[in-house]
Specification:
Number of helices: 17
Strand order of the largest sheet: 1-2
Distance between the termini: 72 Å
CATH topology of the largest domain: Fumarase C, Chain A, domain 2
Mean pLDDT: 95
CATH architecture of the largest domain: Up-down Bundle
Strand content: 5-15%
Number of strands: 8
């Protein structure tokens, strides 16, 4: 941009705007009023509002309400933005006046100025295309922004679900790869009965897959559009055919499956659909964080921890300790999960903060839900590709801990009784002997019977190892 300026006017007075700016006086006022984060609208949110403006121009062209040449110029300007042009013209901070009026006007001004350029007009004159009268025709911030927040969320969803699919598939693959590796289970961070490493990883995979379905299901509520509700949801200044026409046109430009809102007043009042969707992501994040922590724990060591798995080395782990390698990817996932929980908390509080016909906290809700989809989706994919896919099992270490686990006495309880099995566990810990060594020493079981009862593989399946008439599994 140059240092030259043009003078624009609005109901509050006059202001100098950079001469070559596509934004106008209301955008500049907002940028000056809210120098908060230095963060502007996320691309998905910009796209969503531009989809609405483009669709509205076409809708009004079809109904004859907007002159064709003006509509075509607005559509051309919108297409340029959607192709990646003029992105530096969306200058309003994400923390702005309530409801998103500033962002809505930023989009209106950019499209109006660019449309006027296309038609041979001058920037800042808003003729023949006016940001309010033409770009914002039959719209209000109050129906544009709730519609845009749902569009932006839905548009960000496919990449997120794909990342979840990738993580689930990678974990399932490790479950199959590690299915023959026996190890000690642990509950309360104490030794427990045997489990297969493959069972642990398969369980992680199913956890991710279940959450994937829950997130997809929660998104279905977001497909109802409240565009056409205008100021308070009643549809003042919008034609009867406008809402359905808009849904069709927005679906075409976005590629999203959308429907006309059954109750546009309700969709303007309530952010419950967004809060529910965010809550579904939060539930996934809690389990994702647990998986990342488990990977760190299973890989702890390499000499003084569990060391049952080996994570890929992605970078040196210490500036002072040579050769140290840290679980860097899992640590990144932890941090993303904590951030996402904070984002969801903000969404929950902001969703509750609406009054009567409008929730004015929509800008922060939109930013947080889209940002959450971006960072959690990226973290899930990186975890799959840079950690899980390349991790290895240390079968010898797994066997080492398993054969020393006092919890193996659990398989003896049906034969010897709980009390005697508990005494054996205590003696094994005190003596340093394994459970098998202690049973042999005491002559409690021997030969085939001992082998059947202490069949470690059988202990990882439904059944009673060595039990008469009861399938031992395995």
């Amino acid at each position: 941009m140059t240092s030259a300026t043009r003078t624009e006017h609005d109901p509050l007075g006059s202001k100098d705007v950079p001469a070559d700016a596509l934004y106008g006086i209301q955008s500049l006022r907002a940028a000056e009023n809210f120098p908060i984060s230095g963060l502007c609208a996320l691309p998905a949110f910009v796209d969503a509002v531009i989809w609405i403006k483009r669709s509205a121009a076409l809708a009004h062209k079809q109904t004859g309400r907007l002159e064709a040449r003006l509509a075509d110029a607005i559509v051309q300007a919108a297409d340029e933005v959607l192709a990646g042009e003029h992105r530096d013209q969306f200058i309003v901070d994400v923390y702005q006046a309530g409801a998103g009026t500033s962002h809505n006007m930023n989009c209106n001004e950019v499209l109006a100025n660019r449309a006027n350029q296309i038609l041979g007009g001058e920037l800042g004159t808003y003729t023949p295309v006016h940001p309010n009268d033409h770009v914002n025709m039959a719209q209000s911030t109050n129906d544009v922004i709730p519609t845009a927040m749902r569009l932006a969320t839905l548009a960000s969803l496919p990449a997120f679900l794909s990342a979840m699919d990738r993580l689930a598939e990678t974990l399932f693959a490790k479950g199959r790869e590690f299915d023959d590796i026996l190890k000690s289970g642990r509950t309360h961070l104490q030794d427990a009965t045997p489990i297969r490493l493959g069972q642990e990883f398969t369980a992680y995979a199913r956890t991710v897959a279940r959450h994937r379905q829950k997130v997809a299901d929660a998104a279905e509520w977001l497909r109802e559009m409240n565009i056409g509700g205008t100021a308070v949801g009643t549809g003042l200044n919008a034609e009867a055919e406008y809402p359905a026409l808009m849904v069709d046109l927005m679906g075409e430009v976005s590629g999203l499956d959308l429907s006309v809102g059954e109750d546009r007043v309700q969709l303007m009042q309530s952010m419950g659909d967004i809060a529910s969707f965010s809550g579904a992501i939060r539930a996934y994040v809690l389990d994702l964080n647990k998986i990342a922590n488990d990977l760190r724990l299973l890989a702890s060591g390499p000499r003084t921890g569990l060391a049952e798995i080996i994570l890929p080395a992605v970078q040196p782990g210490s500036s002072i300790m040579p050769g140290k390698v840290n679980p860097s990817i899992a640590e990144m996932v932890n941090q993303v999960c904590y951030q996402a929980i904070g984002l969801d908390t903000t969404i929950a509080m902001a969703s509750e903060a609406g009054q009567l016909e409008l929730n004015v906290m929509m800008p922060v809700i939109t930013t947080n839900v889209v940002f959450m989809l971006i960072i959690v989706g990226n973290a899930s994919r990186v975890l799959a590709d840079k950690c899980v896919s390349g991790l290895e099992a240390d079968a010898r270490q797994c066997a080492y801990w398993l054969e020393r686990s006092p919890a193996l006495v659990t398989a003896l309880a049906p034969k010897l009784g709980y009390a005697e099995a508990a005494a054996l566990s205590k003696e094994a810990i005190a003596s340093g002997l394994t459970v098998r060594e202690l049973v042999v020493k005491k002559g409690l079981l021997q030969g085939t019977e001992l082998d059947e009862v202490l069949d470690l593989r059988a202990m990882t399946e439904l059944g009673v190892p060595g039990g008469k008439g009861v399938p031992a599994g395995g």
